[in-house]
Amino acid sequence: MRMRFVGVSAVLLTSSAWSTPVDDMRNGVDCTFALNESPYVISGSTTGSGTVPASPWTSLAKPAGSLNASVDIYALVPDLNLHATAFFTASASTSTTVKWTITAPGAIGQTVTFNYQGTDISVKISAITGELNLIAGSVSPEVDPTNSTVYRNVSLAPDTGANFLQVKGYLGGIVIFPVTFRIDPARYVGLAGNAPTTTISGKINLSDFVGDSTGRIATLTLTPSGGGSPETHYSILDAAGNYTLTTPLTGSVSLSAKVGHWLSGIYTVVQLGSSTTRDFTLENGDVDADDGVTVFDYLELSNAFDTNTGDGGYSDSADLDGDGSVTVFDYLILNSKFDTFGPIEQ
């Protein structure tokens, strides 16, 4: 039998950090959770054992100000093909630990069929229970695996004590044939908490271009002013050239933007806050995308000269004006920017 147990994902509040990991978890909205490979045992009218495969990251709903959460039981054990709400109730907690008690009263009485070692087994559910003892720790902000705009600053892992999920029922719905499925110990990882973030958005104007910017990818790089590793984001532009990114960085940074055959632009100093707007105007002519307009760009354009969209040898990068043809007008754009290099201050 394959059984999968998955948990939780989250959108967090962008307010100041709280004093302990559990406080962070409590004040955030939702959390993100995944099961690692875990052993299971079948007992009762039939017996067996095996390993539950690792599950994908998933979301469990949790309101701000509470450690209680809930999720459709299908997200916990999809192979049961059972839809009912599972409740994760925090029955105890400290500054770094949380005990979750799992119940799913809406599942009682439902009949599920699953495959165990090649045989379909029908079970009428009599109870779904469980317990997870979590240890929470503070970590550097990490992007939520289920939502790239959310960052987490609390890790979740099994603490000492019970960590299990148990399903009880009756084979064929017959009470004289009880059966129990138990995942124990449940091995898992999770992320929670609130990492304050800044949303940066704006418009990227692609100069000397009559084509459509929809779908073009902007590479946006944030570099902390006081030193530290740069952070790179990719944003897909719409028809108006709009971009957006979310970062957990704080303080002052530089922000640069590069798109295709346009030279990069840069804001040397950007003070991060809850939201920041920066528009860019990028200069055209960088056919080989090395952030400089040189003789090598002339060579690239010459190789594609007098071709149209769909022709062999046509190059979107050489079609600087985006009119579908590589012509003398593209040469004129390149010539006007010759010997220019990015990043260009905005």
Write the layout of secondary structure elements.
Elements: E1 10-11, H1 21-27, E2 29-35, E3 38-44, E4 48-52, E5 58-60, E6 69-72, H2 73-76, E7 85-93, E8 97-103, E9 111-116, E10 119-144, E11 147-171, E12 178-183, E13 188-192, E14 198-206, E15 217-224, E16 231-236, E17 242-247, E18 252-259, E19 265-271, E20 275-277, E21 280-282, H3 295-304, H4 328-336, E22 344-345
Structure keywords:
five-stranded mixed beta sheet, 22 strands, disordered N terminus, 13-stranded antiparallel beta sheet, 9% helix, 346 residues, Immunoglobulin-like, mainly beta, 2 domains
Commentary on this structure:
- The chain has 346 residues and is mainly beta.
- It folds into 2 domains: 10-192; 198-345, Sandwich (Immunoglobulin-like), CATH 2.60.40.4130.
- It contains 4 helices and 22 strands.
- It has helices at residues 21-27, 73-76, 295-304, 328-336; strands at residues 10-11, 29-35, 38-44, 48-52, 58-60, 69-72, 85-93, 97-103, 111-116, 119-144, 147-171, 178-183, 188-192, 198-206, 217-224, 231-236, 242-247, 252-259, 265-271, 275-277, 280-282, 344-345.
- Strands 1, 2, 3, 4, 5, 6, 7, 8, 9, 10, 11, 12 and 13 form a 13-stranded antiparallel sheet that branches. Strands 16-15-18-19-22 form a 5-stranded mixed sheet, with no helix packed on it. Strands 14, 17, 20 and 21 form a 4-stranded mixed sheet that branches.
- Mean pLDDT is 89; it is low at 1-18.
